[in-house]
Amino acid sequence: MDVDTASDNTSIDDKIDDFCENPTRDALTEGLMSLLKPTVDQLDERIRATRICQIELKQRIESLTEELQRINEALQYPLDTDSYVKKLVNAKHKITIVSNILQTTQERLNKVHEAVEKSTAKRKTLLDNSSAYSSITIEPDKEEPIRAEADKQQQ
């Protein structure tokens, strides 16, 4: 087997051309990207809004807890506000848990978004490279001197 033939079989140029000339795969990729990207963006936006609301709610619960404690201390005959304070503390704890879950979900969505962007960029690069390779043509009358020059350089 010739050495040049073996290197041609593993050429990445051949694989790039095969990958990029598949219109079904390109259409499928475009369709999936157009379906996933708006959903990921919308989820990301809603998670951010929910986290902001939860932070505001957490701050209000903290201020309400402090206010109830001040009122309780100021009264000569303290009311039984301990049960309400405990409920507020439990609500604050639940909000913190949900906030952590949302933060983890948002990080995962950001990773999916980055993967979609990388895939799109990689695909565009492959398409640009394949169009650059296919746009290079050699005129028949100039082909022989180019081959002769290449043979001389290899020797």
Automatic annotation (TrEMBL):
Highest taxon of source: Eukaryota
InterPro entries membership: Snapin (IPR017246), Snapin/Pallidin/Snn1 (IPR028119)
A GO MF term: SNARE binding
Region (Disordered): 132-155
Keywords recorded for this protein, A-Z: Coiled coil
A GO BP annotation: lysosome localization
Coiled coil location: none
Similarity remark: Belongs to the SNAPIN family.
Protein name according to UniProt: Biogenesis of lysosome-related organelles complex 1 subunit 7
